[in-house]
Write a structure and sequence with these properties.
The protein is an alpha+beta fold. 50% of the residues lie in helices and 10% in strands. It starts with a strand and ends in a 16-residue tail after the last helix. The relative contact order is 0.21. The active site is at 13 (nucleophile).
């Protein structure tokens, strides 16, 4: 058994976009297995009795200020969509179905979706928007097998997953990490700023947000 990091995410979360960039860097440095699992933050919030930071004025103001420092702090470009926040339910349904049918592709496709939203400032909310963008990054023959992503049964699976994660696993936001060492011990971590904790648990070196020892300069 090797060390493993599972990242639960919803593309509506800018900090999940940041976290994905960082965890992919550490995936190579730490030589850990990485698994991405789409979830619906709407259902997580519902079953965890939580609220998005953007809906709380003081939190929302601070978050937007912190997002402005992301490029220098984390080395990723960020340009929030003008329509933020928007409903990502159908997008998460698409990613859920993709994860089920083509799990080997989820990491790269999720990265492309995150880039389209948070780097390039585009909304992906409707079935047409999602399908149109997916057609530019994913093979047609695979997309044909994902045509049912908007169906009710996929949403029901996301609802059941959200309830189980919130009520049984304590999940309350995105990104959410479950980190398991080779000895079988596990911890959970929330947010894009918990990699120092993850490093300590895995007995691996923490090398900053760039995973190379470089110090961010704000």
């Amino acid at each position: 058994m090797s060390d493993k990091i599972v990242m639960y995410f919803d593309c509506v979360s800018p900090w999940s976009y940041v976290a994905l960039a960082v965890v992919r860097r550490y995936k190579k440095v730490w030589n850990v297995e990485l698994e991405l699992i789409p979830m619906s933050l709407s259902y997580i919030m519902k079953f965890a009795n939580n609220k998005p930071p953007i809906t709380i004025p003081n939190k929302g103001m601070l978050m937007m200020s912190e997002l402005g420092r992301v490029p220098r702090m984390y080395g990723v470009r960020i340009s929030p969509p003008k329509s933020f926040p928007f409903d990502t339910m159908l997008l998460q349904q698409f990613l859920t179905l993709l994860k089920e049918k083509f799990p080997e592709d989820i990491e790269e496709v999720a990265q492309q979706f995150f880039n389209h939203i948070w780097r390039d400032g585009n909304r992906l909310a409707t079935a047409d928007e999602i399908s149109a963008f997916a057609a530019t990054i994913y093979p047609k023959e695979k997309l044909e097998q994902l045509a049912g992503f908007a169906e009710k049964d996929v949403r029901i699976r996301l609802a059941k997953q959200g309830q189980a994660l919130a009520e049984d696993e304590g999940v309350f936001g995105s990104p959410w990490f479950v980190v398991t060492r080779a000895d079988g011990e596990s911890i959970s971590a929330f947010g894009s700023d918990r990699f120092e904790h993850i490093a300590a648990f895995l007995h691996k070196p923490y090398l900053g947000t760039f995973a190379n020892g470089e110090t961010p300069k704000l």
